[in-house]
């Protein structure tokens, strides 16, 4: 077994990435404070070729050296938008026909493994502040809430880890035929 060199990975160029078809998934960051988490989410979003990231409130938009540290340039390939208020972003997403899901622990949340992503609209996933989570007023405007099952002593995963888990699970479900061969 030999580790592959970067040039052997057949990755898209930045131009090819921009021109490629995206997965109809939008990640909304509701007041995420850590620039390293934001950068990591950009990198994960690039890996799953999602449509867009929307940064809201205190979520610092690129360019920023601390975002670059973990994004490693993904902030230049993934489309992004900034809203001062998360509710304004949710209102825009709703007007565009997106199905909106908070990733949060709430009453009647759907466990991630039971969640079926919509097939006829884009999916907006809202991830919240590292300590406070998604704001209640934002949750009130969502179509549903998804919860990641956990079996240890902690109450949550790091937001960048949560984003990776949720995007992978949804990616697998949307591309189920790819994994059945």
Annotation, overall tally of beta strands: 7
Low-confidence segments? none
Order of helices and strands: HEHEHHEHEEEHEHH
Beta content comes to 15-25%
Which outline best applies? globular
Instruction: Enumerate the strands of the largest sheet in spatial order, edge to edge or round the barrel.
Output: 3-2-1-6-4-7-5
Describe how the helices and strands are arranged.
Layout: H1 14-19, E1 23-30, H2 35-47, E2 50-56, H3 65-71, H4 74-77, E3 80-83, H5 86-95, E4 99-103, E5 110-111, E6 123-128, H6 136-139, E7 144-147, H7 159-174, H8 176-179
Parallel strand pairs: 1-2, 1-6, 2-3, 4-6, 4-7, 5-7
Helix pairs in contact: 2-3, 2-7
In short:
This protein has 181 residues and is an alpha/beta fold. It has helices spanning 14-19, 35-47, 65-71, 74-77, 86-95, 136-139, 159-174, 176-179, and strands spanning 23-30, 50-56, 80-83, 99-103, 110-111, 123-128, 144-147.
Can you offer a commentary on this structure?
With about 180 residues, the chain is α/β, with parallel strands linked by helices. The chain has a single domain (about 20-180), classed as SPOUT methyltransferase, trefoil knot domain (Alpha/beta knot, 3-Layer(aba) Sandwich), CATH 3.40.1280. Helices cover about 35% and strands about 20% of the residues. It contains eight helices and seven strands. It has helices at about 15-20, 35-45, 65-70, 75, 85-95, 135-140, 160-175, 175-180; strands at about 25-30, 50-55, 80-85, 100-105, 110, 125-130, 145. It has a seven-stranded parallel sheet, sandwiched between helices.
């Amino acid at each position: 077994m030999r580790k592959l060199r970067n040039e052997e990975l057949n990755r898209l160029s930045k131009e090819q990435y921009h021109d490629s078809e995206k997965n109809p998934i939008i990640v909304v960051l509701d007041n995420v404070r850590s620039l390293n988490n934001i950068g990591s989410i950009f990198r994960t979003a690039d890996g799953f070729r999602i449509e867009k990231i929307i940064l809201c409130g205190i979520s610092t938009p690129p360019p920023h050296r601390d975002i670059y540290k973990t994004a490693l340039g993904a902030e230049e390939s993934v489309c992004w938008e900034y809203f001062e208020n998360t509710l304004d972003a949710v209102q825009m997403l709703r007007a565009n026909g997106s199905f909106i899901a908070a990733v949060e622990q709430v009453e009647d949340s759907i466990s991630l493994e039971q969640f079926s992503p919509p097939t006829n609209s884009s999916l907006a996933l809202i991830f919240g502040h590292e300590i406070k989570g998604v704001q209640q007023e934002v949750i009130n405007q969502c179509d549903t809430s998804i919860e990641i099952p956990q079996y240890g002593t902690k109450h949550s995963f790091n937001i960048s880890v949560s984003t990776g888990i949720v995007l992978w699970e949804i990616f697998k479900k949307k591309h189920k035929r790819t994994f059945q061969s």
